[in-house]
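At this stage, I put together one protein's amino acid sequence and its backbone structure tokens, which the following lines show:
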Amino acid sequence: MISTNKPAFRCSDETFNEIWRVCERSVWQHPGQDPVTAHADSMADHTFYWFLSIYEHYLYTSNERCVRKAYPRMRKFINYCLSHTDSNGMIQIKSDDQVFVDWLPENRDRRGLRSFEQILYCKSLEDMAQCAHLLGRKADEERYFAHFTRLRKQILPFFWNEKRQALVHRVVDGRRSRLITRHSNVFAIFFDYFTEAQKQEVASTVINNPSVKPFTSPFMQFYELAALCSLGNLSQVLERIRKQWNSSLLKAQLSSPKAEVDEKLCYAWGICFLYLFGRYFLGVKPVKPGYEEFEIRPELGGLEFIEGKVPLPNGEISVYRNADLIRIQASSGSGYLYFSSSLPPKASRGEIEKFIGKNQYRLWIDAGDEVGVTLTQSPSSKTT
């Protein structure tokens, strides 16, 4: 049974508390009809996002029935994709296909192979292999995993510009374009396709480079913010959210059904940044499907305190953190709490372990545990 508990978030900055209150929402999507003769909404990236959403849903809910119900249709779509690949296994977009990905003007030119499509397709193959494994479809699993591993090995060598330390937008007739866009570079960080060194380089050469055209939709801005969070740049993310979502116009649009809604805000993606608070600030994510095992890495990002709840299929995890204290309560599941402290921390229960890296610790949390960890930090380390 899916939990009816609602997510919650509160912090020391009332700006973000208000943004949370006016933006809370959810959405579900299922594409297309038989026979499969085109991508979902005639957009390849919509097809790929749908693949990703199915496995992501399973990871967070352990709802195998959802995967089992969707799988026959997923299989038809992925086989359609496989029938439109070149000799290197890269997806080819037909001339009559639309391409969303932030309505990038450069996508009107359909020549060649675009890096962001290959990355999304590659991740789709990986998730299809995972779904096939879950359902015991061994032949499908082996087939999709083989296509995934082949494509995964080719993407970076094919699109990477060593001089500019970034993925180029497209390759036409074997020649890399000079155009650098954010899309594929952000996806490669988000999906962990770069090395750690490459991630830092791309953060500099692309994400924090004002000469690279910025995203226009909240949908793609979410991926960029998530990439920044994964790199530990939480303070930068808060400033971006404060600037982009803290406007009276946006609040009116999201809170009033009668408001004249901007086309970029009239979808659930207008508030997709809410995911970041639970995932990267409260720091809760599933290690095993349905949070049977979880990890918690609460980070302040420059705030004085954070607190909130993350709903689980059979309960919830409550998190509180300030500079000196972490409190965790988990009503189901189990997993590690990870944190840093410049001096030895103390826990109200359990045994704290030293972890990999300087001043890094972890503490195992069991279902039903309510644990407090005191962080005796030096003044220079009280902001994250």
